[in-house]
Amino acid sequence: MVKSPMSAFTAVLATPYPAAGTPIKFDQIVYNAENHYDPESGIFTCHVPGVYYFSYSIHVNGAHALVALYKNGQPIMFTYDEYNKGFLDQMSGSAVLLLDEQDTVYVQIPDEEANGVFAAENVHCSFSGFLIASTIKKEVAASRTEDDVWA
Ligand SMILES: [Ca+2]
């Protein structure tokens, strides 16, 4: 009997102005039991091939902000906020992605031009993802140990 595959995480960021040009390190884990998200790099690595949903919620303060959801180093979707002085803005994005094993997904500020991503102790940015449905073949799944795929 094969257990249903699991892959899900939510992580938050509580410090402002993460570096551009590198994945944002959402470093406080809310859920990451399968450990497919790495809080030290900010990178989710697919261990269960399938269809996934990813979302992010970002605060903006002090400057315009541009972020993108990246798959395997390529931006899939951009989200932009035009910042007006004196306000705290929010922006968010989400996408369904088809992933193969070892595909990577992360959120990144593409460049320093628009890096107003803001967070604080009670003003969290967050990054979440979860498996909607595995595309792994049943016979392959049956041949694998729990450590391979489901852990
Ligand atoms: Ca705005």
Automatic annotation (TrEMBL):
Keywords: Collagen, Extracellular matrix, Secreted, Signal. It is found in: Secreted, Extracellular space, Extracellular matrix. Residues 2-138 form the C1q domain. InterPro entries: C1q_dom, Collagen/C1q_domain, Tumour_necrosis_fac-like_dom. PROSITE patterns: C1Q. The keyword Secreted applies. One of its GO terms (cellular component) is collagen trimer. This is C1q domain-containing protein. The lineage of its organism: Eukaryota, Metazoa, Chordata, Craniata, Vertebrata.
